[in-house]
Amino acid sequence: MKTATDAPAPRPGTPDGVLVDPGWLYAHLYDPRVRVVEVDVSTAAYHDWHIDGAVLWNIYADLKDADYRLTGTAALEQLVTRSGIGPDSTVVFYGYAPALGLWLMKLYGHADVRILDCSRDTWRAGGYPCSTAASEPPAGGFCLDGEDARIRADRAAVREAIGQPGTTLVDVRSPAEYRGERFWPSGGMEPGGRAGHVPSAVHQPIDGIYREDGSFRTAAELRRVFAPAVLDSSGELITYCTIGGRAATAWFVLTHLIGRDRVRVYDGSWAEWGRIPGAPIEGP
Description:
Elements: E1 19-20, H1 22-28, E2 34-40, H2 44-48, E3 50-51, E4 55-58, H3 59-63, H4 73-82, E5 90-95, H5 98-107, E6 113-116, H6 120-125, E7 130-131, H7 155-161, E8 167-171, H8 175-179, E9 202-203, H9 219-223, H10 228-231, E10 236-240, H11 245-258, E11 263-265, H12 269-273
Parallel strand pairs: 1-6, 2-4, 2-5, 5-6, 8-9, 8-10, 10-11
Antiparallel strand pairs: 3-7
Helix pairs in contact: 5-11
């Protein structure tokens, strides 16, 4: 039987077909086997408008606990269920941090996960279906498997990696965050938190990975974004940012679009590390 996963043709440089263009999503938007998820840090953009039929995953409300750590398996399973995701669903993510949604589903063993290869604005400008009504798909039945430790790093793994030649810590935040001039990307500081970076971390901003329409650049262009210390080492990479969105994006680009192996995401990132008393930090 033909399934939704038969349709998307891989873009050059993406052998697994993990990116889908607007035309493909439009053609499959009302296929019951396809679920669309917008990932954002608030409800504002989603309530303003969203892709017709899409559900919202709010990073702070749905994916993180009060200490900015990934929420528990039971809560995540409830989120996936109410999103209408079943074991055979093709899940397409878009929005502020689609790679975080893809990484999360991969972490728990869901095979067919995609990213819409354009921005929200490009979708709307193309005249594709949008809505302001919250979507309530039929409940899904996907049970989360055990975590794939090959793609996730906790703070103990980060601490152990400091200064070790076999692992490169990759800080993908802005220069101001890396230098310790701000805690949050918006410019604010965190009461009780400390700004700076993890000792020995390589600073690797991920500006320049998108074209003007929000689609990812080619593999050759993306390789020029990353420093030799990231691309050319044979060891493991651990990416981090502030809440995990940019870290997951770097992981996605490195693994799925460039083909780098042995990459893990520290999803707690600076929101966790910078608030831990006594955690080693380099800063101003």
